Amino acid sequence: MPFSFKMEYRGNSWHETCFICHRCQQPIGTKSFIPKDDQNFCVPCYEKQFAMQCVQCKKAITTGGVTYREQPWHKECFVCTACKKQLSGQRFTSRDEDAYCLNCFCNLYAKKCAGCTNPISGLGGTKYISFEERQWHNDCFNCKKCSLSLVGRGFLTERDDILCPECGKDI
């Protein structure tokens, strides 16, 4: 009779050739295995049968992972649609099913300030002024001539410019 190693796990013993994966029936030997419901699986078989599959790369998620729109993702696969930066652990938003980092979202979709032309995100309690079809950051809503803040004050318009009543009295 050929020499065989004895395999032991949780008080049970097997011949080396009898300690097999429940799914593929191959000997596990000294390779890693995962027990489930009194059955032993080699790691690849366990992943195929029980692990969640990443929506993006279709590979098994073995540790961690992210759930977005009730679907599983690897942290590394859950990235901004525009810049491909990893979104896990970052603030992000979405549009039309696509996830974006806040920077890309603001640059692509946010209204632009008529004063500084930068996006108005509205995040973090950022307040802004809206008049007709234009918007301004609070800090940018100033008289074109004297730079007086017009937040909460009356103002006049001259073409695309906004003016305080004093600077606008001659128009």
From TrEMBL:
Keyword list, A-Z: LIM domain, Metal-binding, Nucleus, Repeat, Zinc, Zinc-finger
Signal peptide start and end residues: none
Transmembrane listed as a keyword: no
GO BP terms in the entry: negative regulation of calcineurin-NFAT signaling cascade; negative regulation of transcription by RNA polymerase II
GO molecular function: transcription coregulator activity; zinc ion binding
SUPFAM superfamilies attached to this UniProt entry: Glucocorticoid receptor-like (DNA-binding domain)
Keyword Zinc-finger annotated: yes
InterPro entries from the UniProt entry: Znf_LIM (IPR001781)
PROSITE patterns attached to this UniProt entry: LIM_DOMAIN_1 (PS00478), LIM_DOMAIN_2 (PS50023)
Top-level taxon: Eukaryota
Record-annotated LIM zinc-binding domain positions: 52-111, 112-171
Entry-linked Pfam families: LIM
One GO CC annotation: nucleus
Cellular localization per UniProt: Nucleus
Name of the protein: LIM zinc-binding domain-containing protein
Species in which this protein is naturally found: Vombatus ursinus (Common wombat)
Biological classification of the source: Eukaryota, Metazoa, Chordata, Craniata, Vertebrata
